[in-house]
Specification:
- The protein is an all-alpha fold.
- The protein has one domain.
- The protein contains seven helices and no strands.
- Helix 2 crosses helix 7 and helix 3 crosses helix 5.
- It is elongated, with a radius of gyration of 15 Å.
- The two termini are about 25 Å apart.
């Protein structure tokens, strides 16, 4: 999977269900479940790499932690907001042009690949 494919998949997020992460991510899970396992795992790898790149940016970490001390897990969930809002927003956050709201998080994107793999495995079992 190329990064472009990753970003295109994120365009499938259904924000009309905001507040119900399962419903928001469902179209991405479905699309990934139709792909090869390598593609599913690549999606996960790209998400983790993008978060790691944000974690390296001191200004991004400070902005995400603005409301107080946060754990590493909480920080990752906050950084996920930059990812799920698309490539341009992600790049703006990474470059310090936009700031993350430390009260928002979307860690559910980190479980999408796992859910897609489970759906794919279930389809194989039930045929």
């Amino acid at each position: 999977m190329k990064k472009n494919d990753f970003w295109n998949l994120l365009n499938l997020l259904e924000w009309k269900y905001e507040g119900d992460d399962e419903q928001v991510t469902k179209p991405v899970v479905r699309a990934l479940a139709r792909m090869d396992e390598e593609e599913i795992f690549a999606f996960n790898d790209i998400a983790k790499k993008l978060i790691a790149d944000l974690e390296k940016e001191k200004a991004v970490r400070l902005a995400a932690e603005a409301s107080g001390s946060v754990s590493e897990e909480e920080l990752r969930k906050i950084l996920c907001v930059a990812i799920v809002n698309g490539r341009k927003y992600y790049e703006d956050v990474r470059k310090g042009k936009s700031r993350l709201n430390p009260d928002l998080e979307f860690g559910s994107i980190l479980t999408v690949a796992e859910k897609a793999w489970a759906v794919k495995a279930e389809r194989r079992i039930t045929g």
